[in-house]
Structures are given as C-alpha cells and as structure tokens.
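Two entries, shown back to back:
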Amino acid sequence: MKKVKLMKKYANLIATIGIRAHSGQNVVIQANVEMSEFVHYLVKELYNQKVKHVDVVYTDQILIKQKLMNSSLKRASEIDEFYVQRMEERAKQGYARILLDGDDPMVFQFVPSEKLKAYNYAFRSATYPFRRIYNSNELAWCIAGVPTKQWASRVFKDDSPTQALAKLWKAVYKACRIEEDNDPISEWNEHVERMKRNASLINDMKLVSLHYKNSLGTDLTIKLPKNYRFTGANNIQKINGRGFVPNIPTEEIFASPRLDGVDGIVYSSKLLNYHGIVIDKFFLKFKDGKVIDFGAETGYEALKGIIEFDEGSCRLGECALIPYHSPISELGIVFLSTLFDENASCHLALGASFNECIENGENMSEEELTAAGLNSSKEHVDFMIGTKDLQIDGIDEEGHTHPIFVDGDFAF
C-alpha cells in the first residue's frame, strides 16, 4: 500500500538521518495526539534500529487553549509541571529527542493576547533548561513535520479535511525528498554534503560582515563575530561525536550575527505565524544590533511581544541562507509552519544564537559566548526575508567584496 510505504520511508528518514539512531540509544518523541498512526511506524523503525527504549509524550493544544480561554491571567502562566519534569529527566538521562510538528497553526487565534503572552513566557522559561541541552547539541534532536487535519485545513482551505490532509502529506513528502521509488537516505546524504560545501566556502572567505539588499526596501548590514562558523544540516553531538540533522526538512546554512553588529532595515517577504497569530508585511529597523523601530500591517502587537519578550529578543540570533529556488519554495505553498516556511526563504531570527556558530562555541559558558559576541535569549523566532532579487555581499577582513547571493540564489 502506497500510504504505508511512504510513511515507513519517512519514519526511516527521521530515525536514520534525523537522530542517527543506534544501538543502546534512548529516545523521547513528542507528538500531537492525532499523529498516533505515524508514531506507531516511527517507534517500530526506532526499535528496528536497535534503540534501547522509546518514550512517547502526546500533547493536545486544544486543551491548552481551553485552559487559557477559561482561566485568569495568573492561572494562564501556570505550566504543567509533570511535563516539564518528565522532559528534564529525559534530557538528563541522555535521551535523543524527536519533536513532531503539526499542530493547528491557528489554535490560539482567539485567545486573549495577554494570556497567550503570559503562557508563552512561562512555558519558554520553564522549559529553557532542558531545551538548552538539546540546542547546545549535547544530545541528538530532530523536528519533523507530520500533517494533521487541523493543520491541513488551514493550508488548503477550499478542500475537505480528508482531501486537504492528502495534499499536505504529498507536499511534506516532496519537501523531504521522499518518493515511492527513490532512496531518501542516499539523497539526504548528498544534500547534506552540498550544504556543508556551501558553508565551508563562506567560512573560508573570512568575512567580517554581510550586506543584504532587495526591492522590498531591505538594506541591512550584519557583522559576524570573530571565528564565526556557517553550518547547516549536520550537527555533532557532544556526548558521542555522532552527527544528526535537527530539522527535516532543511535547506539552510546559517550563522549567528554579532549581537551589537546589525544596522539598517529589513522587510519580511512572507507572513509569520506566531502561536496562531499572523504577523505580515512587517519591518524591523536596527542600530548597533538592537531593534529601534518596527511596524506591521497585520499582527503589530504580536511582533511587539516578540521584540519585548526578554532582554535578548530585540536582537538577532541567526542569519540563514536558503536559495529562492529551493524545493520547498518551488512548491508555492504557505505551510503556516516555520519548519517548512523558513526553508523556502532566506530568513533571520530574533532571539537566541547558536553555540555551534562560533569556533569552540559548544564548550563555552553563556558568559563566554556573550563575550564572543553571541546573543542570549529564551526566545528564538524565525522570519522570512528572501526574495527572487535578494542580493547578499560578503565583506572580508581586507575589505574585498564577495557575492554570496545574486538574484535570490547562491552565487557559487
């Protein structure tokens, strides 16, 4: 049966490429309750690859919505301690983590903004200790998209839920390089090597800054920290030196800007779905790394909430390079999911930097990372800026200019 065959291929991809499953490994999966059919295939595949134990944590965003709609502001900021403790324990026990992304992107659309803000801040703060373990690549982790009817119906509004779900699965498979008669593992290994090559080319240029410009009005200079590193797709676990791919799909190579080195203005090229709130047609103006002005035609208050989330959320933590003609972009679908939409376009991120984006960063303390120029925040929000006419120039230590992007795609 075609459906079963494709699901098994996808499960194999997440296990083999995503977390590099191996004998003796423990794995925790977080998934929406509607994903149970796919979770069964994934768990079976993990055990086929001889992992020691698989723990599944099911979540239901509708229950959280109901709580927020019927709670006081104070109660809205109370987090499920059992969930936090369970995930912290798994991190401390060395579990690889798989997060299956596919919740209704608009589930919190009608929740009062002050309650949603209180909940998000409390949740991000409570889960920061164990998330930091994974984000620092102490352990393998992977986020992968799994369609649900709620998500599919938001993307394909004119179709029945069943038709929409079938269309979304087809698009997800295409984005993840899965076909009925191909070898996804081989294709992904080649894909990872291409991205590593592009990252190495930019690293070898010894750049000090990047200059972005396009017809939307973007005119932005991003300084890079000393000993910066563009990386992408293949991360390395500190615990055992094994590689893993944290995002499926992924098309990006990325670096972290110098926290005080961003100047100019940037305009969004695609809408941003932030916890069910659409932020669209917005701009950010930077001076010395900090947002000093911003605006949005849609979702102004949500954008304001991101910028004011904490001390570091008004600065950039990531600049990612994705060709305009990437497979996901060419699908022409707005997925309403950052995991997919960010891989259709060059993007930036407000908030936390990545340790691996500076030489020896994985072995530095937070204080050392800050001293090296990386930003710190409990938030990390990607937003898309890529266009078909985006120009990006790199300036090296001797003042020479290197074309990085020409007309939206890599210049090399």
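entry 2 starts here
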Amino acid sequence: MAKSKIERIDQEIEKVREKITEYQDKLKTLETQKTEAENLEIVQMVRAMRMTPAQLNAMLSSGMVPGKAGVSANYDEQEDTDHEA
C-alpha cells in the first residue's frame, strides 16, 4: 500500500527537524571554537606586552587601550581625503 500524502509530509517534517537539530549543534560548536580562538588571541596579545597582572589590571581599570593614545576623539567622523590630491 502506498504511503499517503500526509505520511510523506510527516516524514519530511521529521527529516527537517533532525537537520535543524544537527545545524543548531554545529552552530554551538562553531561559536564555542570562535570564543576559544578569540580568548587565545587576547592572551597572546597580553603576553606579548609582557605586563604583570597588576599592570594589566591597572591598564584595564583606567580604560587605556594601547595603540589608541594620541588619536583624536572624533577620528571616526573625519573623512579620508588623502586620495583626493
């Protein structure tokens, strides 16, 4: 006996639900991997600065960001016109 249209649709629904679950699991894994990679990159940058934990804490508490000193506050608002000469 042939499957009814409703049974075929039910099977297709189940397949799609399984794929959704599979993709959700894959997404969680990828997000975890990304976070771990970001954390590793941060740790490597901090280690490259050769700061003591106390120095790092003081820098973070002050809001100072290395490499950003001397940049004007409205830098993002300025238009780049170097190419227009």
